[in-house]
Amino acid sequence: MPGDLPRRDRLARIVRVDHAGEYGAKRIYEGQIAVMGKGRHGKTLRHMAEQELVHLEYFEKQLNRRRVRPTLLQPLWHVTGFLLGAGTAILGERAAMACTVAVEEVIEEHYESQLKHLGPEEQELSDSIRKFQAEEVEHRDIGLQNEAERAAGYPLLSAAIKAGTRAVIWVAERV
């Protein structure tokens, strides 16, 4: 269709943004672990962080294999991801879980949208994204089970984090 990206460019965007997103997720969990790692949620946070690290390593390999440059804004994600994780953890356990829920809901939608653009020639990438999507849904569910929706100001906090996540996705695809 007119205005559609060529296949190679579309795939480069997918790999770039997913790498950036998984890097950001890793940093969010590192921030939360720095604040809450010794508390009752420490083991759960480490479990989710370990899964995000697997996702990140996969997309790092995809960047190299496909010769796609990472986002130029990775140093910014390094700082902001950690600050988002630590900041919500400082607000309390429920706020940290609200952060997880908000981010993972956007990522689930984002992955679903990407899957619609991947044809049979990208089956391995599609399968990996589906697996990672299921794990992101698991993280969301963990957040909900741990009273994310009872965080102070949940609707506002969730909306702000979702808007920020969507903005970061848009930028990371392009920059």
Automatic annotation (TrEMBL):
Protein name, as recorded: 3-demethoxyubiquinol 3-hydroxylase
PANTHER family cross-referenced by the UniProt entry: 5-DEMETHOXYUBIQUINONE HYDROXYLASE, MITOCHONDRIAL, COENZYME Q10 BIOSYNTHESIS PROTEIN 7
Pathway as given in its UniProt record: Cofactor biosynthesis; ubiquinone biosynthesis
GO biological processes: ubiquinone biosynthetic process
Taxonomic lineage of the native organism: Bacteria, Pseudomonadati, Pseudomonadota, Alphaproteobacteria, Rhodospirillales
UniProt catalytic activity: a 5-methoxy-2-methyl-3-(all-trans-polyprenyl)benzene-1,4-diol + AH2 + O2 = a 3-demethylubiquinol + A + H2O
Positions with a binding annotation for Fe cation 1: E22, E52, H55, E136
Record keywords: Cell membrane, Iron, Membrane, Metal-binding, Monooxygenase, Oxidoreductase, Ubiquinone, Ubiquinone biosynthesis
Any one Gene Ontology molecular-function term assigned to this protein's record: metal ion binding
Location in the cell: Cell membrane
Transmembrane segments: none
Needed co-factor(s): Fe cation
EC numbers for this chain: 1.14.99.60
Similarity field: Belongs to the COQ7 family.
GO cellular component term of the entry, any: plasma membrane
Key word Cytoplasm present: no
Membrane topology reported for the UniProt record: Peripheral membrane protein
InterPro entries hit by this protein: Ferritin-like, Ferritin-like_SF, Ubq_synth_Coq7
Gene name as annotated: coq7
Function: Catalyzes the hydroxylation of 2-nonaprenyl-3-methyl-6-methoxy-1,4-benzoquinol during ubiquinone biosynthesis.
CDD domains associated with the record: DMQH
Free-text cofactor note: Binds 2 iron ions per subunit.
